[in-house]
Structures are given as C-alpha cells and as structure tokens.
Amino acid sequence: MIMRKKQKINNIIRLQEYEIFSGLSEDQIDQFCKALKPIRFDKGDIILQEGEVGNSILLLLDGKVEITLALTLQTSHSQIDTREKSLIELSGDNHPFFGEMSLFSDDDKRTATVKAITTCQIGRLDKKDFFNICNSYPEIGYNVMQNISRVLCKRLKQANQNVLKLTTAFSLMVET
C-alpha cells in the first residue's frame, strides 16, 4: 500500500513538469494520472504517423524522439513521395507532449510523424478520457485548454518564422 502511494506521488510530481498541467494542483493532476496509459517504444519505432487518424495526446516520459514532416503533398495514390524533413528532436528531460492537434481538428489526422530515437516511455491519454476529465471538472478543463492554447500559439509562431525563412531563401534563389 505504501509503495503504491509513493508511486502515485512520484507520478504526480513528474507530471507537474509538463506545461500542459501548469497551474494544476496535485489532486487535479491525479485525475490525468489515473487515465494515463504507459507505452514503451523501441529505438526506430514509429510512435505517430503523419496522416493517420489520432485519438490521443502523448507525453514523452523518457527517451528521445524525432518529429518529421513529409516534404511534399500527395498528388495521387500511385505517386507517393516519402522524403521527410526533420523538424526537431525532443527529450523526455524537457517534458514534451505531442499529438494534441488530433484532439481538436475536424479530421483527427496526425500532422507529423514521431519516431523513437532511443527506447521511449510514453504516457498516452486517450481523447475520450481527456475530454471526460475536462468536462467533469471545468476548472481543470479550462486550465488545461489554456495551457494547450499557449503551447499551440508558440508552435504556430515558430512555424510562421520557418515559413518566412523558407520563402525568403526561395526568393533569393530565384533572383540569382
């Protein structure tokens, strides 16, 4: 019994490090702790595949992942270009979460591929559980949605800067 309680406290303390849970009390974070499903991925495993339907948000608990995007749009079923651009590498030490966009988009599709660079421990929070918690506890839901919005805004600003850099580089190439 004492070991189980100690493990629960350690899990809550660990989750407090994630920006998605910023400003939540230990009791509030415990609601998510109860719903979090641990999954292990080996080096080289695909954790999320761009374009596939998603129904969960993932927390990188341990390990390192690489996030990539396809370089081209699919033009036809027979002509699939598999070239990808590596966007970022994430470490569990930085407490990242990903997959959240599939919770809020109309088609629920994953917007990037996430691949394990090392053995990874992931905490998966299913869409149904996530929204059940947010709807059952409006204060928690409000705070978590605000936190996700803040992260999405940061990521959108970074994406806009990257598009501007690419557009500028392309314009300079065309001018010469």
Overall shape: it is globular
**What's the end-to-end separation, in Å?**
71 Å
The ordered string of helix (H) and strand (E) elements is HHEEEEEEHEEHH
Counted by DSSP, the helix tally is 5
Structure description:
The protein has 176 residues and is an alpha+beta fold. The protein has a single domain, classed as Jelly Rolls (Sandwich), CATH 2.60.120.10. Helix 1 crosses helix 2. It starts with a helix and ends with a helix. The mean pLDDT is 86.
Question: Can I get a quick summary?
Answer:
The protein has a single domain (2-175), classed as Sandwich (Jelly Rolls), CATH 2.60.120.10. 43% of the residues lie in helices and 24% in strands.
SSE layout and pairings?
Elements: H1 2-15, H2 26-35, E1 37-41, E2 46-48, E3 56-62, E4 64-70, E5 84-91, E6 97-98, H3 101-104, E7 113-116, E8 120-126, H4 127-136, H5 138-175
Antiparallel strand pairs: 1-8, 2-7, 3-6, 3-8, 4-5, 4-7
Helix pairs in contact: 1-2, 4-5
Could you name the key traits of this structure?
176 residues, single chain, four-stranded antiparallel beta sheet, Jelly Rolls, 5 helices
